[in-house]
Amino acid sequence: MIQKVVETLDCVGCGACSEICTHQAINLFANNEGFKFPKVDGDICIQCGMCMKVCPVINAEEAKNPRGIVYAAANKNLNVLLESSSGGVFSAIANYILERNGVIFGAAFNEELILTHRKIDNVEELSLLRGSKYLQSDMQATFKMIKGLINDNILVYFVGTACQVTALKSFIRKDSRYLFTSDIVCHGVPSQKIFNVFVSAFEKKENVKIVNYKFRDKEINGWSCSSSSALVIDNSTGKQKKIRYNKILNAYFEAFISGSINRECCYKCKFTTEERVSDITLADFWGVENYHEMFYTDHGVSLIIVNSSEGREVLSALQEKLLLVESKYEYGEEINKCLYESTPRPQNRDYIYESIDGNPDLIIERFIKKGWDGKYVKYLLKSLLRKNSSLYASLFRIKKIIIG
């Protein structure tokens, strides 16, 4: 029974077991940390075993492809590249699918800043799915929707964490030429509940309401991880403004990158291996300038792993849209450890979530930079330098010479 997976805290919270149960014997409930877990009603359950067949934890090894081919890639469309977290490869694939009357499923915030997986079928809405979101998305009825579309011969592109991709493939239960998938190389997923703690504190302190949140905004620090921004409505004036650097916003990213707010299963993730579960894996190619000189840019570069014949076919069709060069696993793994190992579990992890209801301010204070804030200084310097593009380019070249 699926409850055995839950009891060991291996559950990834995808909800596939609940969706597949035709007797409604499995429902999802959030625990005190805000993470959803399934609960089985023994009076209704008929022991059919379907929940076990769709569980990504149980079917992890079966879902993996042989080791794929690694590339460095960047979208040739500068506007798309700048709006993306890394190299804009997701947008290139998504456009390819949309041009073939397909639909895209990915994570997007709703008006209440709740992260859910949603469907889009037009280019205008594609921006909602762009960019990294560092918390767990609510899958809702995504698996059933996708299965229905595939059965109607509609092309579907699904993007999510590796466990979500595995859950979907297990739910479909057969290979389909109408399903194309990408998994995101993942550092782990915090809960919506702890994200809300930081959002509420930010809105209260600044007396604003967030309209749009970006975890990584290239307008601030270029291609980096210290660039959270928020488009807000000022409660005093009713006017919209953009807050480009804020200690509370940055504190959330510090908490995330420390690994202190992940779901328990993320510390022993079954999917942080070179054998990936999707057609094309997407990640940041940190350190790419050390191996591929053509990619020395502040605009962002993707590391992609092509894992299937379908992946190779789509990448071939995108040759004219992408700046592309074949690379090696070893190059990408040097800095991006999540390609091959789980995020270590910090000692303070339990303390963080124990404080979520009693004194959430303690969580925020723990991750707010005190005194000298190097990232803020870096942000200020880059902001000033970007006003003089020739000077910025010169300094960029000097940096390249210094690091060799």
How would you sum up this structure in a few lines?
This protein has 404 residues and is α+β, with helices and mostly antiparallel strands. The chain is built from 17 helices and 13 strands.
Q: What tags apply to this protein structure?
A:
single chain; 404 residues; alpha+beta; four-stranded antiparallel sheet; four-stranded mixed sheet; 17 helices; globular
Q: What can you see in these coordinates?
A:
With 404 residues, the protein is of the alpha+beta class. The chain is built from 17 helices and 13 strands. The chain has helices at residues 3-7, 16-20, 50-54, 60-63, 78-83, 89-99, 142-151, 162-172, 192-206, 218-221, 247-257, 309-317, 329-333, 349-358, 360-367, 374-385, 389-403; strands at residues 26-30, 36-40, 69-75, 103-109, 115-120, 156-161, 179-184, 208-214, 229-234, 240-243, 280-284, 302-306, 322-326. The longest helix is centred in the middle third of the chain and has 15 residues, at 192-206. The radius of gyration is 21 Å and the shape is globular. The model has no long low-confidence stretch (mean pLDDT 90).
